Amino acid sequence: KVQHDPPMLSLDKCYEEATLKKWFDKFEGDAVVSPKVDGVATCIRYDANGDLILGATRGNGKTGEVITEQVRHVGNVPHHIEQGPLEVRGETYMPLDVFEGSFKGVYSSPRNLTAGALKQKDATKTADYRVEFFAYDAVGLDYDTEVEKNQHLERLGFTPVPTHLVGHADLQSTFETFVAERSTLNY
Q1: List of residues 6+ apart from 146 with CB closer than 8 A
Q2: How buried is 38 (Cβ within 10 angstroms: 0-12 exposed, 13-18 middle, 19+ buried)?
Q3: Residue 64 and residue 30 in contact, taking contact as beta carbons nearer than 8 Å
Q4: Alpha-carbon distance 98 to 72, whole Å?
């Protein structure tokens, strides 16, 4: 087991425009929005030398399971970064084309299969599932903006979750764009 500090909390859900606007009205400026990636929340820790030393699931948010060796076989996860210590949080997921091409009909969902891939006793078998990682947070460094944080994660070799910077007036249209594009996304 591993302790998460700060806790790895799940995001609040919103199902109608009025609730979303009420939330957005609590602050000034633009917001970074991204589609929901349905996978397994994962944290990856690097030591002061930038070497990957720990991978873990979110678990209950405060305590997760150690999956370090499995994480070493997840796509888009650098084994070494130029700047440590750092904890990178994100979502491990199975691309839909991988699921459709190799696993559909045998397994119920890409999300459940991702969880199974991260629980392999023989960690090298995790690679057979071709799961990937989207980074969305960096714990241990301060950033002025979410955009700056995502750019830094990309410079370190991660694939940040796709985002859009939107103002209050564009919130609903951005949501509608995500809905319209949903069937074309590979996650």
Answers
A1: 32, 163
A2: middle
A3: no
A4: 19
The region, left, alpha or beta by phi > 0 then psi within -120 to 50, assigned to residue 140 is left
pLDDT in tens, 130-164: 999 999 999 988 999 999 999 999 999 999 999 99
| pTM for this predicted structure | 0.92
What strands lie across the sheet with 86-93, from one edge to the other? 52-57, 40-46, 86-93, 132-139
- Render pLDDT for 58-95 as a digit per residue (tens, 0 to 9): 999 999 999 999 999 999 999 999 989 999 999 999 99
Angle ∠(171,177,181) on CA atoms, nearest 5: 150
If phi > 0 it is left, if psi is from -120 to 50 it is alpha, else beta; for residue 23 that is alpha
pLDDT in tens, 10-20: 877 777 888 88
Active site members: 36
Closest to 66 (Cα-Cα) out of 10, 131, 133, 119? 119
In single-letter form, the type of residue at position 87 comes to E
**Tokens in use for 85?**
């210590």
Q: Are 8 and 57 in contact (CB under 8 A)?
A: no
